[in-house]
C-alpha cells in the first residue's frame, strides 16, 4: 500500500468519524434540551450501498448493522430501482433503512412461469402490447 493509499484511507476514516461525532453532539443537545421541537418528523436514516471490499461482503455488513441496531425489521423490495432490498425499522418518528442490492444478499429461485402483457416500443410508434412468458421468482434472503 502506498503512502497515497494510506492517506486516502485515513482521511476517509477521519471524515467518517467526524460525521459520527457530529451526530452524537446533535443528539446530546436534543436530549439535554427537551424544549427543542422534535427534529425527526418524517425523517429517515439510510444505510445505503454498502462498500463491499475484499474483506467484507454485503451480507456480512447487513447482518452487522441489523444486529447492532437490533429490534424488528420489515423487509420490502423495489424491483424498479435495480432490485434493491430494504430493511426498515421505525422508532417514534425516526425510520432507519438498510438498503442493499438484493442480488448481493438473496438467492433467486424460479418457482414457475406466468404469461403477462408487456408494453414494447418499436421505433416511431407509441407502444405495442406483447404477450410474453416470464419466470415467477421468489427470493430467499437471510
Number of helices: 3
Query: Are there runs of 5+ residues with pLDDT below 50, and where?
Result: none
The profile of the biggest β sheet is:
4 strands, mixed
Mean pLDDT: 75
Helical content band: 25-40%
Q: Could you tell me the strand content as a percent range?
A: 35-45%
> Which geometry do the CA atoms define?
elongated
Radius of gyration over all CA atoms, rounded? 22 Å
Structural class: alpha+beta
Order of strands, widest sheet: 1-4-3-2
Strand tally is 6
How many domains, in number, for the residues?
2
Distance between the termini: 35 Å
Q: Your description of this structure?
A:
With 142 residues, the protein is of the alpha+beta class. It folds into two domains: 1-36; 37-141, no CATH class. Helices cover 32% and strands 39% of the residues. It has three helices and six strands, in the order αβαβββαββ. It has helices at residues 3-32, 58-69, 102-105; strands at 43-48, 74-78, 84-91, 94-101, 106-120, 128-141. The strands form two sheets. It has a four-stranded mixed β-sheet. The two termini are 35 Å apart. The mean pLDDT is 75.
Question: Would you summarize the structure shown here?
Answer:
The chain has helices spanning 3-32, 58-69, 102-105; strands spanning 43-48, 74-78, 84-91, 94-101, 106-120, 128-141. It is an alpha+beta fold and 142 residues long.
